[in-house]
Amino acid sequence: MSWLELVDEGGRLLARRDARALPCTVGRAHGNALVTSDPYVDPHHAEVALDDAGRLVVRDLGSVNGLRRPDDDARHDLLALEPGHDVLLGRSRLRLVTDAPAAVMPPAPRPVPEPAGPRWLAATRRRAVQLAAAAALMAVGAVVATIGVPGRPAGMVAGAAAVGILLLVTIWTAGWALATRLRRGESRFGPHFVVAVVATLWSALVSELPGWADFLLPDSPVVTALLFGAAAASWYVALALHLRVMSPGGGARTQRASFFAALVLAGVGTWLPAALERDFSTVATITGTLKPFPAALVPARTPAQFAESLEGLERELLDDEEPAATGSRVLRRADDEGAAPQPETPQPEP
Amino acid sequence: MTSTADPRPPRRPAVRSRPPAALAAAALLLAALSARAQDSAAAPPPPPPADASAAAVFQRLAPAVVRIEVQESGSRAKSGVGSGFFVSTDGLLVTNYHVVSRLVHRPASHAARATAAGGSWTLTLLAVDVVHDLAVLRASGPAPSLAIAVAPRELAKGTRVLALGHPRDLGLSIVEGTYNGRLEHTATARLHYTGPINPGMSGGPAVTDDGALVGVNVATMGEEVAFLVPADAVAALLARVPAAPPDRAGFLAGMTADLAALAERTMAGLFTPGGPSVALDGYRVPTAPDSSFRCWGDSDGDEDEAPGVRVAVHGCSMDESIFLSETLGAGLARFEHELVRGQGLGRLRLLAALEGAFEQALPFDGTAREVTRFHCRHANLRTAAHTWRSALCVRRLRDFPGLYEGVFRSVSLGVYDAGLITSLTLSGVPFDLIRTLTARFLEAVGSTR
What we know:
The structure holds 2 protein chains of 2 kinds. By secondary structure, chain A is an alpha+beta fold. In chain A, 47% of the residues lie in helices and 13% in strands. Chain A has 2 domains: 97 residues, Tumour Suppressor Smad4; 158 residues, no CATH class. In chain A, helix 2 crosses helix 3. The C terminus of chain A is likely disordered. By secondary structure, chain B is an alpha+beta fold. Chain B contains 8 helices and 25 strands. Chain B has a 7-stranded antiparallel beta sheet. A 6-stranded antiparallel β-barrel of chain B has the order 1-2-3-6-5-4. The longest helix of chain B has 20 residues. The N terminus of chain B is likely disordered. The chains are: A alpha+beta, B alpha+beta. Strand 11 of chain A pairs antiparallel with strand 20 of chain B, so a sheet runs across the interface.
């Protein structure tokens, strides 16, 4: 006697059915032969049937997350089901068991209870996490804004900053939620919101690094490297987590995609402003980061040593040749070649 | 003081943005003209006989004073009009460099003509004194039989001086004014003239009753406060007029050498140890090293009890702006100290305020063909009194090989109740002078604690 069994991530049996009663549908909807509450399983996810050769196969019914083998991220539309070769649907596992213990009766399809405590408690806990994230974010935004704008009523500045940053993160979250709804049929706003908050706080933290590097080691290549690294890390954290929420079990492919997207975004953010700065301008842009740090411990040179080191600057200025051809270039050429204007014949007044 | 309506003084004093002489150095050059004004130039109306001797001087000198027009040769369009005068009967003519600067910078596309009651001449540029804003040209063809004699002599303050020229291109005019001595606050020689000098009179002569040259009209501040280039600078330039005119590069090389020499002469001694200084809260900052600098100061005051940033400023500038081209000037040296105090602010907020005050986008003049963009270096520097965060941004004046323009700006670190931001701007100077003064400037800032 063989059975089709659906088990959750932890190996707990969710549903079971006689393997001879075919076709056997699997999904979240109650009309299925095997029912699971796994959110990563579609309402009508897959069906088990016999193929032309008489083998037992699992066929994808157009689900979002498809079918996979436990040891492999590749997605399949059709997989053979044999004892020992299980098939993953979302986070649930479908397996074929041949010699079932007599004590276990085929249970009726039923929704699985929440893992811990009553449903309302879990929901409350989720809400609490989201509210805590929002509060932390608003607090950080308020504090940072209060430092940055002296001379204005601190309470107003802090309040405006807190609301502003919450608004921004909410808009960011809404974008991801919309994308998720289009792809999976549900928004998952809450998890996206938590990810957005975590990513924002994280990037606020790592973006401190380049500032410190600029403060302690001005003009060092370390600053640019850190600038790029911090931006890439922030983008990666944000993208990878959001994509994970959007399609759980996306696996290595999603990770790779997030990684490269993060590199590109960070590269654009780091080098595009520098490239734009190379455009001609008559403005001298003075920059310098200040940090709360004992002045005596700041690595420093004497002004004389600094002046000594300016040969490179002089060379750089001498190498700064005229910008590429523009309208005035032609005019300039003509002037370069010409000497004083040629005297004309005098024209006495009549 | 004209107005006391505003209870709080502005954070930055209005006068410090430009030294007075710079206000109108180029303003005398009349660029835009009406067709009517052009007609009247050919036949100057008789001046009102305000004084018999002024009328006599006018009658005598009018043939030697010309209207100079610079034309863009392709379009025959006027690019500027000024005045000038013959200094010899063999056709040498003097005017301001700023009237004919296009003949130096864009010789192939520009030509100059002089017109007077007695004739019309094509002009060839022979020599330039960029520092005093003078040019010598040769007129083609027969010159008038009379020239204005250049024989410098000392005058008493109050001596009557008559200025001739083409104000607003309205025809040759003579105005009456008073000689008021040499300016004390300039690195280059200038005479103070009280009289109605107006745009278009640039390059015209200012003479005594007996027709001897006192100076050349060069700039006005309005309200009859005007400036002349002294006759001795004219004599010096005439003494070094070459036989043949140099080419563009030759002119620019000569001007560069003059500017470099001026920079060395006026600035090489700046910020040497023991120089004059003033106290600014806990700091002792350098102030006017000599009379060629003019200083100003201002403070937000403490009368306003609201928490926030208080700024006190002390700045000095050379009272000078040298005309290089229509889009570029050289202001030599300027420095400014800005004391930033926090009232009721914590350390972090004051630090943020200091950073905000230090980081600046400072606009300069010039076009892409005249200057490079700014190239910057950043460093933490330590002097006997303080530790600093500094930025030095420099650009090269392309047309004046060897001359640069730069700003060296620093903010004191690790002082939490009051930070000092101090800036030194050098304009039209050799790179070595920028290096020398960069090395000295911060060492000149001490502490009073």
